[in-house]
Amino acid sequence: MAIRITEANFQTEVLDAREPILVDFWASWCGPCRMLAPVLEELEAQRPELRVGKIDVDRCPDLAMRYGVNSIPMLVYFKDGQPVSTSVGLVPK
Question: Which residues, in sequence order, are CB contacts of 11 under 8 Å at separation 6+?
């Protein structure tokens, strides 16, 4: 199950995490975001070593701005607290 990431737990869950985490910047009104959700759930089930987190851009605009989110869904893969790769839009698994 994806971790709900907020301003309050971002440091702990993402930046200080020992394991990699795939962060989904999304919004409840975004159709492609809702279509991506089951793909991320399936990916998480198939790759238990990968953690998945979700950041609601409407509730966390500062985090969205900090990582240059201009379009959603936007996936950012973090390793050792650093963004390693980014993908924008609905992408296949």
Answer: none
